[in-house]
Every structure is written in C-alpha cells, then in structure tokens.
Amino acid sequence: MESGSGKRAKESSVRYRRYSVRHPFAAEAEMLELESGSRLSGRTSDLSLGGCFVCLRRTLEIGARVRGTLKHEGQKLQMLAVVRVVKPQVGMGLEFLDIDPESNRTLLAWINNLRISR
C-alpha cells in the first residue's frame, strides 16, 4: 500500500507535468498509434516539459498511446506519449510518458532556448 506522503508526491509530480508552462513552438510531428498502427503527422503549436499540442487533421482517442518524433532545425525528440486533450477541429494534446536520455537533453535545450527568446 502506498503511504500518504508517497501518494501526494506522485500526485504533485503528475500535476506539475500536466500544468507546466507551455511555450509556442513549431516542430514537425510524426506519431505512430501503438494499438492500431495508425500513423499521423502534423505540427506542434506549443511545448512544455510535460508534453505538447499537435495540430492535426484527425485525432486519436483520449488515452491512446503513441510513439512520437518531433523534428525542429535538424534535431529530433523521440518519445512515448499518451493522448490527453483532444480538440477535434484543431488537434490533440500529448503527455510525455517516456523520453530517452538524448531526446530529454534536446527537449531541455529547446525549452531553455524558448525561455531565453522571450
């Protein structure tokens, strides 16, 4: 059984990831929906440490898991993500679940550059 403090720490971590500061950010996005094998591509409209919003012509169901790649100025970010927010006329929000160490360095550099440019 999970202790009270452990549960609060986990909830705080999820809350932080879900509500972290979002920055305007345009990158090419390619996604593979793991269950159906559907492939989608589009462009991001924002980025945060916890996820991004991708503008698409069609979306996936909330809770769908995707393997994604974001490409920007010759750099790539590869991640496992879950669909959290869907706006059918615009696109879908992705919450990052797992990012490999090299991609995580790329994400941190992108976020840092966005902060500096503001």
Q: How would you concisely characterize the structure shown here?
A:
By secondary structure, the protein is α+β, with helices and mostly antiparallel strands.
Features:
alpha+beta; Thrombin, subunit H; six-stranded antiparallel barrel
Helix/strand layout:
Layout: H1 4-18, E1 23-24, E2 28-33, E3 39-47, E4 51-55, E5 65-72, E6 75-87, E7 91-99, H2 101-117
Antiparallel strand pairs: 1-3, 2-3, 2-5, 3-4, 4-7, 5-6, 6-7
Describe this structure in words.
The chain is an alpha+beta fold and 118 residues long. The radius of gyration is 15 Å and the shape is globular. Helix content is 27%, strand content 44%. It has a single domain, classed as Thrombin, subunit H (Beta Barrel). It has helices at residues 4-18, 101-117, and strands spanning 23-24, 28-33, 39-47, 51-55, 65-72, 75-87, 91-99. It contains two helices and seven strands, in the order H-E-E-E-E-E-E-E-H.
Please give the order of strands in the largest beta sheet: 2-3-4-7-6-5
The separation of the N and C termini measures: 45 Å
What profile does the largest beta sheet have? 6 strands, antiparallel, barrel
Into which percentage range does the β-strand content fall?
35-45%
In percent, how helical is the residue content?
A: 25-40%
Question: CATH-wise, what's the superfamily?
Answer: predicted glycosyltransferase like domains
Question: Could you name the CATH class?
Answer: Mainly Beta
Distinct helical segment count: 2
Tell me the Rg in angstroms. Answer: 15 Å
Please state the average pLDDT score.
Answer: 86
Q: What string, H for helix and E for strand, traces the elements in order?
A: HEEEEEEEH
Q: Give start-end ranges of low-pLDDT stretches.
A: 8-17
Class derived from helix and strand content: alpha+beta
